[in-house]
Amino acid sequence: MSKLYALPVRMTDSEPEQPDILHILSSLGISYEMQEHRAIFSEKDGAGVEITLPGTEVKNLFVRDKGGRYALVSMALHRRADLGKIARRLGTGRLSFCSADELWQLLHITPGSVSPLCVMFDTDCRVRLLFDKNLEGGRVIVHPLRNTASISISFDDLKRFVRRCGHEVLTADVYRDEAD
Residue 16: is it exposed, middle or buried by C-beta count within 10 angstroms (0-12/13-18/19+)? Predict the structure, then answer.
């Protein structure tokens, strides 16, 4: 399998230069719709940004256990994650959130721009991907390796991209129960 990417170069005091993910998606026959917007660094930052693309807006949690096992969890934007459920599905110990340095070292992405698409940089497959099972059969809205735009792609195409990058696709109920 040939490489899909070139590793980004970390620039001083600026965003890293990223490969053209849109070209990569097109070369794989993956269609998308795109919307430019102001930079969004967190769910709170995005409160005033109206995304008009079709699909479920996704947030991504980069987590690890004490044993150094990493996972990227993609789920609906406005839901709360249940880290206990996630740990059980992954077969790991208690999970905590990763640092910006770990994010860069493993996925070559900066906070605010995290996307399931960044697994293309995890050539050693150290990061497992876990998707919200409710994303099945629909479209998802993710960042195209930068937080100043969003793209809508089918979840099936996203899974195909992830597998093309050598990663397994896991799905599960990742939400905290509403009563919690």
Answer: middle
Interval 5-52: pLDDT, tens: 544 444 344 455 567 899 999 999 999 999 999 787 777 777 778 889
pTM: 0.86
Q: How far apart are CA 119 and CA 99, in angstroms?
A: 17
Which residues lie below 8 Å from residue 135, measured CB to CB, with a gap of 6+? 56, 58, 74, 75, 76, 155, 171
Integer-rounded Cα radius of gyration of the chain: 15
Q: How far, in Å, CA of 110 to CA of 10, rounded? A: 10
Q: Identify the band that residue 178 occupies on the pLDDT scale cut at 50, 70 and 90.
A: low
Q: Report which of 175, 176, 162, 179 is spatially closest to residue 56, judged by C-alpha positions.
A: 175
For residue 43, the number of C-alpha atoms closer than 13 Å in the C-beta half-sphere is 11
pLDDT (tens digit per residue) in 71-83? 999 999 989 999 9
d(C-alpha 90, C-alpha 87), whole Å? 5
